[in-house]
Design goal:
alpha/beta, binds zinc ion
């Protein structure tokens, strides 16, 4: 562990004013009790429920069923609190900013744990669980730019009696609301909040990419791996599971839990309160 932390701390130190790009996946939140989507753990979400539930196609066929499934996930997220990995990433961001370096966090997670911990330069490329949007594209509260805060939506009628009539509806056009997240059958360019153009820019501009708790199973990690490999920049992956990134990627795997390794890196750099 100390050797891995020292290795990463050395690379971060050498980065100086360059752009540090951190890419997080479900693994960063697992120590907070959030089930991972594709992990090997027995509570991984996709072991329990079919991946086809998180699609726009399913929403169109059975909006009541999808809302019920989605609200169940919300309940599971409610009790979660940021862990030492989230905190360490906040410390790294501050440290990088203080030495006039650049920093950006791209998260695939829809939970709000990075924000709660205090991360600032952040892109939520798969959307967020604390907002909804109108399911009608072109509505001012729907794609490509609109959404509304979750706490402005009254879910009580639906929760007590889930039917098509009680579905949460858009305050502008009365179409059913939907989750403000990227479904598996949708594109990153679907909504402005995913900030995908910026994500592509980051992939081309990063001087070091640090992957944390990502399973490399979705498109956006491939983009980073390809750009990073082509540009021969240092790339690290922190994940307690055996590495699942493709063979061609030039990436250094640090096999350790993020909530232990990242605070150790901060200690080696003499930053944060850990
Ligand atoms: Zn609407």
């Amino acid at each position: 562990m100390d050797e891995a932390a020292g290795n990463l701390a050395g690379a971060l130190n050498g980065l100086e004013e360059g752009l540090l790009l951190v890419v997080t996946g479900a693994g960063v939140s697992s120590a907070s009790g959030v089930a991972t989507f594709r992990g090997s753990e027995p509570d991984a979400v996709w072991k329990q429920s079919d991946m086809s539930l998180a699609t726009f196609d399913y929403f169109l066929r059975d909006p009541v069923g999808q809302w019920q499934w989605y609200l169940q996930r919300f309940e599971a997220l409610k009790a979660a609190r940021p862990n030492a990995a989230h905190q360490a990433l906040v410390s790294l961001e501050k440290w990088q900013r203080e030495r006039a370096g650049r920093f950006r966090l791209v998260t695939q997670n829809i939970d709000t744990l990075h924000e709660e911990a205090g991360s600032e330069e952040m892109i939520k490329v798969h959307g967020t669980c604390d907002r909804f949007r109108c399911s009608r594209a072109g509505c001012s509260l729907g794609s490509p730019t609109g959404s509304l805060p979750r706490d402005e939506v009254d879910l009580s009628a639906f929760v007590s009696e889930p039917t098509r009539e009680t579905l949460p509806s858009c305050p502008v056009c009365e179409s059913p609301l939907r989750a403000h997240v990227l479904f598996f059958d949708e594109y990153y360019t679907e909504h402005q909040d995913y900030r995908f153009a910026e994500v592509e820019e980051m992939a081309m501009a990063a001087d070091l990419i640090l992957f944390v708790g990502t399973s490399f199973a979705v498109g956006v990690t491939d983009l980073f791996l390809q750009c990073g490999s082509r540009r021969s920049i240092p790339m690290y992956s922190v994940d307690p599971a055996a590495s699942r990134f493709p063979q061609w990627a030039r990436l250094i795997a640090l096999q350790a839990p993020a909530e232990e390794l990242l605070p150790a890196v901060c200690r080696q750099l003499g930053i944060g309160d850990s």
